[in-house]
Amino acid sequence: MLELDQVESGYGETMVTHGVSLAIAPAQTHAVLGRNGVGKTTTLKTVAGQITPRAGTIRLGGTNIHHLPAHAIARLGIAYVPETRDVFGALTVRENLKLAGRLAKPGSGWTIDDTIAFFPNLANRLDHGGHQLSGGEQQMLAIGRALMTDPDILILDEPTEGLAPIIIEQIFEKLTELKSRGMTILLVEQNLHFALGLADQVSLMSRGQIVWQGLPEDLKTDQAAQARWLGV
Ligand SMILES: Nc1ncnc2c1ncn2[C@@H]1O[C@H](COP(=O)(O)OP(=O)(O)OP(=O)(O)O)[C@@H](O)[C@H]1O
Ligand SMILES: [Mg+2]
User: With respect to CATH, is domain 2-230 assigned 3.30.70.100?
Assistant: First the structure.
């Protein structure tokens, strides 16, 4: 469904990824893990169109998309939830959701009511400003905004970062529910337990390259790979 082939990207003269290849199958969750600074976020930004790759191809359903700007990629059904969550603090929860919904195709499966039903924690917060939300509520709103674009693929960068265990558990349940509804997910995550619980496929990155690929159960038993590539 989504294929990266030998993608090289970075910032200005500095190349960060050196030939990243990934294949994400429909309705599957693919987790990309690795130590700090290895190029995970850069890879996600490149898929989302925030960085144009220097070399390589990114294909969605067989069509090249790597030359397209971020808004065009969003319209093709790829929603990106950055690590920074990018909730509009000065807008209410409802306004945040409404704005995101403008990217949806006509007849979107996700209205504001659907999104609130999916994240009931946001129901009492609809008229609150984004800046008034807790970290967990902001993450739910960030994912809710992504859903409002009616995506086929959800890209998540460290969705559990800074959240309390109980909130992490809620996010886990919600992503599991999205998976069961057929959502394709590309996940970068530091929480190994969380990532391995959701993923169907795992890729480990080091210094801008994919160094290990396999099933979550393979990584669970591969202590050497965990130690070498994740520092676990
Ligand atoms: N905007 C930027 N301009 C220049 N260099 C950057 C920029 N963002 C990241 N880098 C550099 O690119 C490299 C990879 O960063 P990236 O954010 O992709 O890593 P990461 O794997 O997501 O790390 P982390 O686990 O800390 O989130 C790092 O050396 C980082 O310093
Ligand atoms: Mg990162």
Answer: no
